[in-house]
Design a protein that fits this description.
Residues 1-23 form the signal peptide. By secondary structure, this protein is mostly beta strands. The chain contains one helix and 25 strands. Strands 14, 15, 16, 17, 18, 19, 20, 21 and 22 form a nine-stranded mixed sheet that branches. The protein has a four-stranded antiparallel sheet with strand order 1-25-24-23, with no helix packed on it. A four-stranded antiparallel sheet has the order 2-3-4-5, with no helix packed on it.
């Protein structure tokens, strides 16, 4: 979820080996009694971008090799869920509760993967062709919807009604976006996306505009935002009527209260922390917001440090 095409293309060149952690389940019983940590260290060289949760565990993807890392912030259990492979990329990630899957956006690879959330095994892959940056995604009962930061469309994996089945690769399609949304040439456009009732919400990084999207027709309507700027908007997280917009280069998270129709939003809080270093996305669990720091301004090496920062939740 970066700000320019050159940064996106560079992701594929940043393939390094992440230092492994102990296997999941290595936490101790005494860890459960400890307060929630303010900071959770990731493997060195991990190059994180996306984060999601199943309400108990946090899952973080790797730009370096597409790997998936997991941690339970209450018990301290942590480890690599899927080691990743050279040439793979994990940008946005989202948890599918009905299927117990992790859906992963492949950025410049133009692909979406589905992983078993318990074993990390790749269950399915869907390709949308070259020339796209499949950035962030969200799962609804009808499908998986991913932003393309270079175009005016969403990548879509339609989901069958039965939760024990996945669609064939041929089911992958794109949804043209019409209405208020217009991509800015040679810029990073649609980025974070989240479901909101029967709608989708997505932020346009280059100018900070927020849009409501009809997931069936692709018609977009700009959301009127009061009291906040959303330029450099990256990951989105929603809890009830509160939408959290991570502003990566600004090192802050803006909390907005949405109206019932999702056509207007008003600032209720701005979350800051000295530990934030280009946060990319955030996930809410254990009554806290957990922001992953992508550190895009720091040279990525196999020894570069990365971490998750705990933030408070906003009250409307």
């Amino acid at each position: 979820m970066r700000r320019a095409r050159s940064l996106a293309v560079a992701v594929l060149a940043l393939v390094t080996a992440a230092a492994p952690l102990p296997a999941a389940g290595a936490g101790t019983a005494s860890a459960a009694a400890e307060p929630l940590p303010r900071r959770i260290d990731l493997p060195r060289g991990w190059q994180p971008e996306g984060i999601t949760t199943d309400s108990r565990t946090l899952y973080v993807g790797s730009l370096a090799d597409g790997g998936l890392w997991q941690v339970n912030p209450r018990t301290g259990e942590r480890g690599v869920l899927w080691q990743g492979k050279q040439g793979r990329v994990a940008v946005g990630v989202d948890y599918d509760r009905r299927r117990d899957l992790l859906w992963v956006a492949g950025g410049p690879t133009g692909k979406i993967r589905a992983h078993d959330a318990d074993t990390g095994r790749v269950m399915a892959r869907y390709s949308f062709g070259s020339g796209r940056f499949v950035n962030d995604l969200t799962v609804t009962r009808r499908g998986v919807y991913a932003t393309d930061s270079f175009g005016a469309e969403l990548a879509v994996v339609p989901l069958p009604r039965r939760s024990d089945r996945l669609p064939p690769r041929s089911a992958a399609r794109t949804l043209e976006l019409t209405g208020d949304y217009a991509p800015v040439p040679d810029a990073f456009n649609l980025n974070g996306i989240v479901r909101a009732g029967g709608w989708l919400l997505a932020v346009q990084s280059v100018n900070g505009e927020l849009f409501r999207i009809n997931p069936r027709t692709g018609v977009t309507r700009q959301v009127a935002v009061t009291g906040a700027r959303l330029v450099n908007g990256d990951g989105l997280e929603r809890r009830g009527d509160v939408l959290y917009v991570v502003r990566n280069q600004n090192n802050k998270v803006v909390a907005l209260e949405l109206d019932a129709r999702r056509t207007a939003a008003e600032r209720v809080a701005v979350l800051r922390h000295p530990d934030l270093d280009v946060p990319a996305t955030a996930a809410a669990t254990y009554h806290r917001l957990w922001a992953v720091n992508a550190r895009f301004g720091t040279e990525p090496t196999p020894r570069t440090k990365y971490w998750i920062t705990r933030l408070r939740l906003a009250r409307p």
